[in-house]
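Can you make up a protein sequence with its backbone structure tokens?

===
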Amino acid sequence: MAAEARVRQASLTSRDGLRLHARVWMVDKPRVWLVIAHGLGEHSGRYDRLARAMAGYDIGCCAVDLRGMGESQGRRGHVDRWQQWVDDYATFYQSVLDESDGVEVVPLGHSFGGVLVTTAVLHGAVKAERFVLSNPAFRATAEVPAWKLRMARLASRLTPSLTLSNQVDPALVSRDPAVVEDYRRDPLVHDRLSVRLGTEWLSAGQEALDRAAEISLPFLLMVSADDRIIDPQGSAEFSARATVDHSMKLYQGRYHEPFNDLDADQVFADLAAWLDRRP
């Protein structure tokens, strides 16, 4: 009989005093713990399907709502520095590691969270043996013109907390109509993106690509070929530049959220199989 996850709500305090909300999907005897970094404008609860599927493989999951997201404190869609997100994640990750009782803890980042996890690995902010990236947001779907970048950087200095719509079309999140409808109706999902967060993201994404060859940990890269929110070429470029042993799974026809898309069972099986291969 497959194991079932028991969900526990938790909270922690960020390094600068904000209350952060988290979820933990407990299994009786986890072989691995996944610590999930979610994407822009969403929250930990949207990874329930992934976590319950992983429980069937005796893999525990946990996720924190980053500041300005979900049930955590902070201005919606804004950070002063990208490092604040990295610190939030690293603080939560360390708390999981401290309670892991020797079970391996693996970072997993989706979209914006994929860039965040890559930054954390590059800067040594998390102690891990390997990591997982799902459609990391290294590049936007369209190249940003140089003049727009200059204007964005100016606005980031003058009005850093000014928020605009992230212009994400919910219909492009998943091919599953039920997932799209849930996304539209979810009161904890928002479309806010501050000019400061936007410029910080672009810088972090570029740093990840520029320093891909410095990555020393094995990783799994899960990429949706038909992602129209994030450019899959960013992942291909990251993979091509990386010199460490890694695996890249390319899913034809999939949209931005492979864990919430149609036929997700194959994605779950691939993730579990990779985690079974100890580094």
Notes: The beta strands are 6-13, 19-26, 32-37, 59-64, 104-110, 131-134, 163-165, 192-194, 219-224, 246-251. Residues 258 and 264 are 6 Å apart (CA to CA). The chain has one domain: 6-276. The helical segments are 48-55, 82-98, 112-122, 146-158, 177-185, 195-210, 232-241, 264-276.
